[in-house]
Hints:
Layout: E1 2-6, H1 17-28, H2 36-47, H3 53-65, H4 70-79, H5 81-84, H6 89-92, E2 100-107, H7 108-118, E3 122-126, H8 143-153, E4 157-163, H9 166-175, E5 178-183, E6 186-189
Amino acid sequence: MLIDVYDFDGTIYDGDSTVDFTLWCLRRHPSLLLALPRFAWVCARLALGRAGLREMKNVLFSEMAKRFSLEEEARRFWDSPKTRENLGAWFQSTPRDVPIVIASASPEFELRYAAGLLGVETLIGTRCDPATGLLTGPNCKGEEKLRRIEEAVGPYTIRAMYTDSVKSDGPLLRAAQEGYILRRGSVSRYEGQ
């Protein structure tokens, strides 16, 4: 199957959707501030190399899940006009002559509604149980994205890969027939192949 693959944060979405979603939730649910010491502790451990992104995401999303429905809050987040303004207009105008896959390290529960709004059927993200907020698989990054795409669509060829990060998505760029880097809303050809 021939597909086009898009990273989400910094590519389709102007910014980091998980950071924006977290801030959105803090404004709507001030009780999340009670989790700040636990979250600050895991972030300090992450900065020192003593914790990984998985642990940090588990703490963040589990604290949220204790207080509200992650899926319902994500839907409200994407229904917000301010959030929708950050969905790249360039993506909406991109030709769709082959199936599109969104592949992101952000959790699937957070992006599922956005993918629907964009008309994208195949979403690959970090698996997270929305009831508990705990990750149920590895962080969806690099080689893991390639593995998960094959799991979702079967044998495939990436015609074009769009991302804002050569570092994070290098394996996908190398696997693609064409690679594109997005910087501040401008798309340029990736020549590192």
